[in-house]
Write a structure and sequence with these properties.
72% helix, mainly alpha, 0% strand
Amino acid sequence: MAAPRSMVLTGAALFAGAVTMVALGSAFVPAPKVAPPPIAGALPTAALSAAALSVPTAAYADGGAVWVPALSAVGAGFAIGLAAIGSGVGQGIASGRCIDGISRQPEVADDLRGVLLLSLAFMESLTIYGLVIALVLLFANPLIK
C-alpha cells in the first residue's frame, strides 16, 4: 500500500514542479545573444587594457590630489571587507568542526572548547589587522604627503 501512495505523491510533486517551472519560466533571465561585430573606429581591447593598467600610475599625477585618497578609501573597504569575510567563514567552519567533535566524543569537550577559543581569538586578530590597515589607509596614509 505504501509503494503506490509513494509513487502517486512523487508524481504529484514532479508535476507541481513542472507546472511551477512553466509558470515561472518567463521570470528567468534569457540566454545571452551573439555579440554584434565591432564598430569601426572603436578602441581595441589592447588599448583599453593599457588604459586600465596606467590608472595606478595616474594616481601620482598632479601630486596625488584626488586619486590617492580615493583609491585609499577603496583599498580600506577591501581590507576590512575581505578580513571580515575570511574570518567569519573560518570561525564558522572551526566552530562547526568543534561541535562535531564534541558530539562524537563528549568527554573531550573541555579540551576542544579551549582549543576552539584560542583559535577563534587568533582568527579575530586577523580581522583586527584588516581594521588597522583600513584605518591607516584612511587617516594616516603614508602615500599622501
